[in-house]
Amino acid sequence: MLEVKDLHVTVEDKAILKGLNLTVNAGEVHAIMGPNGAGKSTLSAVIAGKDGYEVTQGTILFEGQDVLEMEIEERARAGLLLGFQYPIEIPGVKNIYLLKAALNAARAARGEGEIPAPEFMKLVREKSAQMKMDTSFLQRAVNEGFSGGEKKRNEILQMLVLQPKLAMLDEIDSGLDIDAMKVVAEGVNSLRSADRAILMVTHYQRLLNHIEPDRVHVLVDGRIAKSGDKDLALELEARGYDWVLEESVA
Amino acid sequence: MSAPERFLERLTARRAEDPSWVAARRQAGAARFEALGFPTRRDEEWKYTDVRRIAEGDFALATDAGYDAEGFEVQRLELDAYRLVLVDGVFSAELSRLEGLPAGVVVEPLSQALADNHEAVGGSLGRLAGVDFSPFTALNTAFADEGVVVRLSPGTVVDKPIYVLMLSRAGGQPVMSHPRVLIEAGARSEATVVEHYTGEPEAANFTNVVTEVLLERSAIVDHYKLQETGSSDMHVASIHVEQARDSRFASFNLHLGGALVRNDLVADLNAEGAETTYNGLFFVQGRQHVDNHTLVNHNAPRTFSNENYKGILDERSHGVFNGKVFVKKDAQQIEAYQNNANLLLSDRAEIDTKPELVIYADDVKCSHGATTGQLDEEAVYALRTRGIDEPMARALLTLAFAGEVMERVKLNAVAERVERAVAGRLPERFNLADLVETAEAVQES
Ligand SMILES: Nc1ncnc2c1ncn2[C@@H]1O[C@H](COP(=O)(O)OP(=O)(O)O)[C@@H](O)[C@H]1O
Ligand SMILES: [Mg+2]
Questions:
Q1: Which pLDDT score is estimated for A17?
Q2: Is B354 exposed, middle or buried (0-12, 13-18, 19+ CB in 10 A)?
Q3: Closest Cα in chain A to B384
Q4: For residue B278, what pLDDT band results from cuts at 50, 70 and 90?
Q5: Does the pLDDT at position A245 exceed 90?
């Protein structure tokens, strides 16, 4: 589904990603771990299409399509969605409006008509309930005045409504208390299916107790230094990251 | 021949049959206009607005009210309303729909009121908009022979909006019109009045309108002005409001069209409990120029005003906002809020903004502010990552900027026009507060 090959990325002439390789297949859940500043957010931002990152080498393919050639919105419509580490507030744009515009954009890209109002309302109410969000959130401006945890739940709400093929979640666990973590994890788990994939970025193992990954990768110094199954996350939790770096240099 | 003389020359050919009081008013207006001449940019009030394009123009007076039927259907608002139509300042009985007005409401063309030599109208006309207010008010006073008179008897609540449609035609020599709108709202009466300026896109006329609104005790008036004439039309307007005790006035001043637009809005809050709200939005592009001057006079204690003006400027357009709030000596326990925010969509657009509070009382709650900024690029990105294309993302954020003003617009037909002009076609009304409720109602039924 997603194939990242030899990806080199610089930000303001500083090399951040230095030859990263990653393959995610349909049905899989991958976790990318690594110390702060390793380049985890950079990877997800480049895949989503954020400005300011220069890809100097390498390719990103999503279902065989060249992602780097696609507009930001095309990537989303194709089913590639990023949940932000720091979701921003968008004053004056109602949550409900964002959801509807986004959903209709994806439908239009698939050649489908706009979703009828009753069907749409049924959908968003159901998904809001799933995320334990009162429907009053729908009428509020996107993330405006939301707590940290509410912002994260709102990111997952968008995922549940839009049903991406590949959901990338950047530090979705940060700022969540244990109850909110459970709600978010259940939301993410409900996205799991044989034809979808999830790519989680985190530097805590904690999240992985709730969302069990098929593969765990360690990103250190701009490269995947080590990959393994879920036990690797436990080992990282116990031993930190330094040994991975030493091992990979050795 | 001077410019004022050239304009006034057109007057002599006109209306020998005026009642004497009307003739006297005209003479006073003409004399004042001749003495003042057109304003120049040396004039503090006209510092940013150059009216030479008007002064140097040669405008005839229209004599008929014919209008393209197809254009009319497209341009008019889809409003269930009592409708009065002027074409280039000439009343069109054919296009107007005034049947079924409830008892206690008069809506008639000004020409009718003048022909009937209506005493009450004679007493009110010009009371708020004196010939000294500006050269254009004087000019209007000299010429005004058409317009609208709205009179509400005490306690009358008008069931539908009163829709005044002013159409501007293209082709032939440009024309000028000097319509006059008079709204007298008796005690406890309620009405919504819509002034709508539109017309053929190529029109290059000059409209110089004066509106007077009198609110008696506890009267409630919503006044909408939607200006969306073509990009060559010139438009000068002043709206003068006087409010008695516990009356409530709301102005919606929505400017989308025209080459050169100047709008003055003045309210006098003359007794306790009077409340006024100014909602303004202008969206300009190309080389459009729009100048809004607003003034609130808190002449009595315990009066309230709230003003929110938003400007959206694209390309090489130019906007002016000059908002003054004046609190008279000893007018205590006033609340006055004023806000002006501007969004520049292009770095060649320009805005001159001057909010001003002049306060001669000490027990007041006042605030004012002005901001100018650009669209938040982070927000554009965030919306695009959800699949919303860039033009749509920008449109949503632009409308979001206008949100606080647009949310108050109660007439859907008006809001949709504005939203479409600002953002192109959207799935449904963006600022509809009750989207969820509406959808739920659909679901349940
Ligand atoms: N927009 C930016 N401008 C400058 N430096 C950046 C920018 N984004 C990321 N970086 C730098 O790139 C490196 C990787 O950052 P990031 O991808 O956010 O790491 P992580 O998410 O793994 O903590 C850091 O050294 C960070 O300072
Ligand atoms: Mg990060």
A1: 97
A2: middle
A3: A73
A4: very high
A5: no
8 Å CB contact between A117 and B442 = yes
* Residue in chain B lying closest to A114 (CA): B427
Given the cut 0.90, state whether the ipTM is greater than it: yes
Q: Is A35 touching ligand 1 by the criterion CB < 6 Å?
A: no
Strands A166-170 and B180-185: unpaired
Tokens 């009179």, located at residue? B151
Residue A122 lies in a domain: no
In this complex, is the C-beta atom of A120 within 8 Å of any C-beta atom belonging to chain B? Answer: yes
A51 lines ligand 1 (CB under 6 A): no
Domain count, chain A: 1
The ligand whose atoms approach the alpha carbon of A16 most closely is 1
pLDDT digits (tens, 9 = 90+) for A50-74: 999 999 999 999 999 999 999 999 9
| 8 Å CB contact of A138 and B436 | yes
* Residue A229, domain member (yes or no): yes
Greater model confidence, A234 or A199: A199
Distance separating alpha carbons of residues B328 and B393, to the nearest angstrom: 45
- pLDDT at position B13 is 62
Q: Average of pLDDT values for A150-166?
A: 97
Ligand 1 binding pocket includes A44 (Cβ within 6 Å): no
Residue ranges making up the domain that contains A169 = 2-88+164-249
CATH number for A21: 3.40.50.300
| Residue type present at position B199 | G
Contact residues on chain B for A71, CB-CB shorter than 8 A: 384, 389-390
- Specify the residue with its C-alpha closest to ligand 1, atom 10: A11
- Chain A touched by B390 (CB under 8 Å): yes
pLDDT at residue B364 tops 90: yes
Residue A112 touches chain B, beta carbons under 8 Å: no
pTM of the model: 0.89
Which tokens belong to B154?
Answer: 């005490």
pLDDT band at B116 (very low <50, low <70, confident <90, very high): confident
Strands laid side by side in the A197-201 sheet = A80-83, A166-170, A197-201, A29-33, A215-220, A223-228
> What pLDDT was estimated at residue B14?
59
B395: nearest CA partner in chain A: A93
Q: Which residue has the tokens 């008509």?
A: A113
Q: Is B341 in the A-facing interface, judged by CB distances under 8 Å?
A: no
Question: Would you call B136 helix, strand, or coil by DSSP?
Answer: helix
Length of chain B counted residue by residue: 445
Q: Which residue has the tokens 């004022």?
A: B4
Distance from CA of B310 to the nearest CA of A (A): 14
Find out whether the beta carbon of A187 lies less than 6 Å from any atom of ligand 1: no
Task: Kindly state the tokens that stand for B379.
Answer: 């927000």
Atom index in ligand 1 nearest the CA of residue A45 equals 17
In-domain check, residue A210? yes
CA angle A193, A194, A196 (to 5 degrees): 65
Within 8 A of B386 by CB-CB distance, chain A residues are 76, 81, 98, 101-102, 105, 158, 162
Residue A144 in any domain: the answer is no
CB A125 within 8 A of CB A137: no
Token representation of residue B135? 């050269």
Biggest CA–CA distance in chain A, Å, is 61
- Provide the sign of the torsion angle of the four alpha carbons A71, A73, A74, A78, taken in this order: positive
**Closest by CA position to B166, among listed B205, B130, B117, B137:** B205
